[in-house]
């Protein structure tokens, strides 16, 4: 199994609540990025931001909502499921491969979430074009506007874009 497939499998297991998420991975890797990701959320005018990391079978997750509240691991998953009530599974089927690509390249898996009106698509540079039935949000940028200088072999964040308004 390739590294990307192992990462995708770990993400899917965590998202399906078949394995606990790692508090230590969150504390060691994701916690340091909280302020920068929160600033990215504001700068990109996203409605929420999802960040995931998988390392050696462990998974950690961060969700920052539009009010700037940060949710960790299982609390982040519960909040995301409430936000995407009708479209969670469909959205995750689209997101997991993108997040896995990012993580396998040594980056954090990050997605800026935009709420869109029903029937509206989101198209732009570094943006996934999604057409889903069900509740918004169904459009997200996969590379939020945030950069970081990685230390050691820490994950990197992409710099770049946001979904159009």
Q: How does the major sheet shape up?
A: 6 strands, antiparallel
Task: Name the strands of the widest sheet in spatial order.
Answer: 3-2-1-4-6-5
Amount of helix: 25-40%
Query: What is the chain-wise order of helices and strands?
Result: HHHEEEHHEEE
Low-confidence stretches: 121-165
What is this entry, summarized?
It contains five helices and six strands, in the order αααβββααβββ. It is an alpha+beta fold and 165 residues long. The chain has a six-stranded antiparallel sheet with strand order 3-2-1-4-6-5.
Describe the protein's topology.
Blueprint lengths: L2 H13 L7 H8 L3 H11 L3 E8 L2 E7 L5 E3 H11 L4 H17 L4 E6 L12 E2 L10 E3 L24
Antiparallel strand pairs: 1-2, 1-4, 2-3, 4-6, 5-6
Helix pairs in contact: 1-5
Describe what this molecule looks like in 3D.
With 165 residues, the chain is an alpha+beta fold. The protein has one domain (3-141). The chain contains 5 helices and 6 strands. It has helices at 3-15, 23-30, 34-44, 73-83, 88-104; strands spanning 48-55, 58-64, 70-72, 109-114, 127-128, 139-141. Strands 3-2-1-4-6-5 form a 6-stranded antiparallel sheet. A hairpin with a 5-residue loop joins strand 2 and strand 3. Helix 1 (3-15) runs antiparallel to helix 5 (88-104).
């Amino acid at each position: 199994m390739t590294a990307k497939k192992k990462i995708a499998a770990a993400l899917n297991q965590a998202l399906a609540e078949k394995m606990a998420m790692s508090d230590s991975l969150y504390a060691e890797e994701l916690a340091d990025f909280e302020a920068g990701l929160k600033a990215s959320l504001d700068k990109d005018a996203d409605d929420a931001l999802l960040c995931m990391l998988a390392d050696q079978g462990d998974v950690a997750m961060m969700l920052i909502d539009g009010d700037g509240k940060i949710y960790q691991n299982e609390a982040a998953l519960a909040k995301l499921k409430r936000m995407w009530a009708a479209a969670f599974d469909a959205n995750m089927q689209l997101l997991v491969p993108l997040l896995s690509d990012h993580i396998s390249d040594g980056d954090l898996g990050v997605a800026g979430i935009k709420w869109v009106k029903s029937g509206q698509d989101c198209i732009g540079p570094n943006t996934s074009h999604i057409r889903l039935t069900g509740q918004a949000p169904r459009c997200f940028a996969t590379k939020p506007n945030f950069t970081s200088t990685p230390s050691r072999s820490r994950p990197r964040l992409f710099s770049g874009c946001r979904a159009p308004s």
